[in-house]
């Protein structure tokens, strides 16, 4: 009996360690992809997942392919209330452009993003550009050519509160890249790697966001509704408002408004002047030489 108990305990410990070394995977696209796996499991090896993603994108359904890598996270980090609101909206298909989305809660091993990138370069003739999220800047894309965008996020901090804040910042950064894409046809592959053993998930010490079912089966991932404004710490004066690009940034400034008013006044003055010059009328007889009797007498 003791031997049976020891064997059961040992198997339980191994199972816990196995799930502890897993991390989630997310995929969404603006195209209705028919090459998706028939049965999407909640647990899958990284090698099998890499093959599935390669088959899914083999027909080059999009113009832009974003491969984002977030190290040091697990599924519980994304269960926090404000962890990744933009990602939640994409996965829930609350964005009307998204037609396909699915996720895997626990991926065993490390997803081979290089293999997917090489396939897209050869099969879709896509060019690859790298984005360093730690600098917070990236080049503006101004053409419609097929492209692979590799986004490498830095490791999350160990502290739970700092993890949630940093994960939300990375979420806003990824959403900003999607907003400026020139083509409306894109696919996003969001891969992760598991955290270290001494890391606490972000959902442990912040306002938790309970979900009825985390990462359910099927193409649709029920991540619940997010909130429209991302809260920042009291020491940070910057407020990032959720929403489309033209709602997050101010393009019509007071200086631009005054310039347009002055330009309209100058154009009005120019129109009146040109119209006045054009309305001048001089008869052709004014330029003819007067040959009448009075002119002849004057010449004598």
Would you write up a description of this structure?
By secondary structure, the chain is an alpha/beta fold. Helix content is 35%, strand content 15%. The chain contains eight helices and seven strands. It has a seven-stranded mixed beta sheet with strand order 2-4-1-7-3-6-5. The chain is elongated and about 120 Å long. Mean pLDDT is 77; it is low at 1-18 and 203-241.
List low-confidence stretches: 1-18, 203-241
Major sheet: arrangement of strands: 2-4-1-7-3-6-5
Count of extended strands: 7
Distance between the termini: 150 Å
N-to-C SSE series?
HEEHEHEHEEHEHHH
In which range does the helix fraction lie? 25-40%
Classify the beta-strand content into a percent band: 15-25%
In short:
With 300 residues, this protein is α/β, with parallel strands linked by helices. Helix content is 35%, strand content 15%.
